[in-house]
Amino acid sequence: MHPFARARERTRALNAAKMDRLFAKPFVDSLEGHVDAIEVLARQPGSLTTVASGSWDGGILLHNLSTRNKLVKLPQAHKGKVSGLCFAEGDRLLSCGVDRNIKLWSIGSNASDQPLNVFPGKSAFNSIDHHRTDSLFATASNLVQIWDETKSAPISNLTFPTSTETITSVRFNLSESSVLASIGSDRTFTLYDIRTGRAERRVFRSNSLAWSPTFPTTILLASEDHNLYTFDIRHLATPSQIYKAHVAAVMSCDWSPTGLEFVSGGWDRTVRIWKEGQGHSPEVYHTKRMQRVSSSIFSADARFVITGSDDGNVRIWKAKASDKLGVITARERAAIEYRESLKDRWRMDTQVGKVARTRHMPKSVHQASKLKRTMLDAQRVKEERRRKHTRAGETKPKAERKKVVIAEQT
Amino acid sequence: MDSLIAKADALQPLGKKRKISHPKKSRDASATDRTLQSVAKHTSVPKSFNKLPDGPNTYSHIANKKLRTELNRHTTQASRAKALLEDAEMLLADEAGKIEVEGEMERTWRVGQDEIVQGAGQEAARGRREWKLDGGPYRSRYTRNGRHLAIAGRTGHVATFDWLTGTLHSELQLQETCRDITFLHDQSHYAVAQKKYVFIYDRDGVELHCLKSHIEPTRLEFLPYHWLLASIGNSGYLKYQDTSTGQLLIEHRTKLGTCTTMAQNAHNAVIHLGHQNGCVTLWTPNLPHPAVQLLAHMGPVVSVSVDPSQGGRYMATAGRDGTVKVWDCRNWKGAVRDWPVRSGGDVELEWSARGALAVASGGGVNVYTRPSIHTPMHTKAQPPLYLTHPIPHRPLTSVRFAPFQDILTIGHAAGLSSVIVPGAGEPNFDSAEADPFENKKARREKEVKALLDKIQPDMITLDPEFVGSLAPPSKLTTVTTIDGKPPVEIPFARLPRLERLKVSGKADETEEHSDEEGLDDNGKKAAREERERRKQRGKGKSLKRYLRKQRKNVIDPTAVAIRKKLEKQREEKLRARMAAKTGGEEPRKPSALDRFKRAP
User: Fold this and answer.
1) Could you say which of A61, A92, B58, B504 is the most buried, measured as most Cβ atoms within 10 Å of its Cβ?
2) Kind plus residue range of the DSSP H or E element containing B569
């Protein structure tokens, strides 16, 4: 009745993989306006379209992603680099810069180029994040400080007694809002609780951090050693997953609102979109015009990824490269779902898997990854030969996860 | 932070031990749904409304949690889908036909066509008709959905028409010999095997292509899922042409002379050819030689057909030695059934979709049904006859069952006759595969979908179920013993270079043996090295010194030639030594006169 059922299904799976690659056109648009590199991007929590970007020349722009307009332009927001942006309740934006100031702007209907409030600080700020519910925000400079919006001095300093480092990033947990995490220049990753003042510390080297929106004890760290790590904060001795694909330092990371994917932007000029739990073969986006990616965020509907890079452009990409942006009929959606499940079922087949996995890379990235692979292989082989030629049982191979965390302090 | 951790632990604690859940005893379901109970007594409730099977719980030994969950999910889904599939049998609307005889002395084959026509309805009675045509003995072919019929007379009369409505698509007088006709993917194109070449025509009879590479074709077959047109001819070459790209895929030399019989197996797209020396060969486009070669008859094979019911398991062949044999394609040990036919001329065979075999021989057509045609029998008795129909016009040149009808079309010297064979056709069609009632839009959509689903010809094998099966385990590990320690399996990438070359068969080992004098098994390294060193001093053999200087992994043509020469010399030495051992006589080659030697 139905001869060649499996052969036909395999042909359809191969065609589905090829069609996916055929329609993979992820670049949507580029938003210009900044004159210098972009340092930070922030998405307004209740809105689908509002994104703020801060650049190295001290300018802040508020973009509307759907109309591609600039809602608010603040060209001289800070004297130096704008190092942190976050949204406060009621159409207000907080920005911090290396000129030791934190400024509160109104961006609603009565937007002006004068800030509502200025909070002066003692040293250059690196990062800022707002509390989920209360009118508090935290900043990172050479220590972590908690500020109240109504007071002009920080209400508390959360420091670790023996720290003499610069804190580069600070983030509030999305569900348990009194928990705070920070990363520092001395290879540290620290957890605080603002109510009890307790601090826990792990020593680890990273550039950026993001709390998972759906699983509150999971945190993602973008590391300088080309990897990303997810940790469960209840068990900080080893990471729960290592994500390896970048060939240079990972500069930024952000979770998708679904908690199933995250985006990372790297020093190797690529943007990678990962699936949570799969530590290899992410989706890669690159363009000749996009230089070092310094910040990347997911849009609120999990369909788009917005990146800011050294060339001063904010780029909008599709989260799924072969998504159709227009209206999709029910029949079309059924066909798309069928093709997805076909690809998933036949992904172990050599040809289908190859078509689905292969991505074109810029030559420099390709060469760098080849070199990296050769070097790591050589290290591994050397290690094995050393072990083979010493007394049996003297050294045992160490699991990759156990190598990450160097020491723990409480 | 403690509250966060406490909350997280309450939901899903970070435990180390994995608990293997024991299967709970299933509770009695009858207590819950009394409505279902009361209804179930008076209606036939689909099987899926009862408790669905949960699937075998055989994965509790797997430690990896993600893998375990995924495997459990897959097996549960599979078992549920299987249960639901049985429900779908309710949707099959039509039933197969049959003839039932009352009384012990009555036989089904005594029922003539007039009686069948009277007994069947008016719609079914349209299947009994005669076409009186002149134009030589006729060959016919139906499309896959059974709606359109193509006929070709030996003298060049070709016609295609919709037999249900009587619409004539095209009629041609080609005025040259036409030996076979087949539809391509649907009624919009057909191919005719004419005197010299194969021609492809449009639905309206417009000549589209002349396939000049198919020379003197005798038979044609179209493989619908691969879009391949296979032709065999007087030259003995089997040629595959891809009709979607137009490329001649491959031509096989059968080396068995002219061939006039061809059949395809619908389940694995293998071509069966019957040859003049009694052989039946099975061909795929991927092998230059036949996949199976079977000596079927003691004379030329006259007709071959493969049973489409039962997954292409049975094949019937007829030979000019006057026998018809039914073979089991899974083991080619011997014919399942074998009986003589009394025919003045050639025999034609065809299986129907439900396993009825039509044998056209001599003055009429005999039809046999399963299960009797499939049961093995050691005597040469004729299988029990189901139906018979005499046809006065000889020769009978083609028998074709209409796909979803109980109709058998016989081509003979005076045209064609259709007879009704109750129970021969498949009653339910799947309109996604072949739909006799498709309209223009559906036909166009199906053509595009079929082109997208075209299977590549390198997937044609004797066993169609190999797609998606696991590959045999690759030889990734080699068992090596190091200095008397227990054998250890080392993966290929971790072996030293010389071992890697040896495993992949690329190591050059000629130099290792070249120094051994004699066949001593314990060639100790020290002794060998000493010998080497001794040889190097004084009269060193320049050839061997030259080779030793070359590295083993450098392929130098001179080195290769020298090695070959050394090899020959070594063989000579070996032979001489063997001869010396056996006492001076050289071993003679076996000859035909050996049987006359007296035993010593």
Assistant:
1) A61
2) helix B557-582
Residue range B320-364, pLDDT digits in tens: 999 999 999 998 888 899 999 987 668 999 999 999 999 999 889
Provide φ and ψ at B543, rounded to 5°: -60, -50
Burial B261-278 (b: 16+ CB within 10 A, else e): bbbbbbbbbbbbbbbbeb
CB contacts of B2 in chain A (<8 Å) are: 193, 196
Alpha carbon dihedral B35, B36, B41, B45, in 10-degree steps, equals 150
pLDDT above 90 for B29: no
- A181 closest CA partner among A214, A155, A217: A217
| A217/B4 CB distance under 8 A | yes
| Distance set, CA A36 to CA A54, A75, A309, A314 (Å) | 10, 11, 10, 11
Q: Which of residues 204-233 of A touch B (CB under 8 A)?
A: 216-217, 232-233
Averaged over successive runs of 10 residues, the pLDDT of chain A (410 residues) comes to 93 98 97 95 94 96 95 94 94 95 92 92 95 93 93 87 85 91 90 80 82 95 94 89 96 96 97 95 96 96 96 97 95 96 94 95 96 94 85 79 74
**Do A59 and A348 touch, CB atoms closer than 8 A?**
no
Query: Which amino acid makes up residue B555?
Result: I
Strands (E), B356-414: 357-361, 364-368, 387-390, 396-401, 407-412
Classify burial at B381, counting beta carbons within 10 Å of its beta carbon; exposed 0-12, middle 13-18, buried 19 or more. Answer: exposed
Question: Are the C-beta atoms of B112 and B390 separated by less than 8 Å?
Answer: no
Q: Give the chain B residue nearest A232 (alpha carbons).
A: B14
Token pair for residue A373?
């692979």
d(CA B359, CA B337): 14
Chain A residues with CB inside 8 Å of B266's CB?
3
Comparing CA positions, the residue from B97, B153, B92 lying closest to residue B407 is B97
Across the interface, do B5 and A234 touch by the CB < 8 Å criterion? yes
* Minimal-distance CA residue of chain B relative to A6: B467
Mean pLDDT of the B563-592 span: 83
Is B66 an interface residue toward A (CB < 8 Å)? yes
Structure confidence by residue, pLDDT tens digits, B272-323: 999 999 999 999 999 999 999 999 999 999 999 999 998 899 999 999 999 9
Q: What is the pTM of this model?
A: 0.82
Q: Provide the pLDDT for residue B27.
A: 47
Residue type, B452: L
Nearest to B8 among A191, A193, A216 (CB): A216
The reply to whether B458 touches chain A by the CB within 8 Å rule is no
**For A56, how many CA atoms within 13 A lie in the half-sphere containing its CB?**
12
Q: Is A11 on the interface with B (CB under 8 A)?
A: yes
| Rounded-to-integer distance, Cα B96 and Cα B357, Å | 16
> Which pair of structure tokens corresponds to residue A299?
């849009």
Residue of A nearest to B494 (CA): A381
Of B7, B14, B456, the CB nearest to A235: B14
Rounded CA-CA distance B440/B478 in Å is 61
How near does any CA of chain A get to the CA of B224, in Å? 11
Place of tokens 């035993």: B599
Percentage of chain B beyond pLDDT 90 is: 54
Beta-bridged to residue B199, according to DSSP, are B192, B210
Question: What's the pLDDT score for residue B299?
Answer: 93
DSSP letter for each residue of B190-243: EEEEESSSEEEEETTS-EEEEETTS-SEEEEEEETTTTEEEEEETT-EEEEEET
Q: Can you say how many angstroms the Cα of residue B149 is from the centroid of all Cα atoms in its chain?
A: 26
Alpha-carbon distance A240 to A230, whole Å?
6
Three-state DSSP state, A297: strand
Beta carbon pairs, A and B, within 8 Å: 75
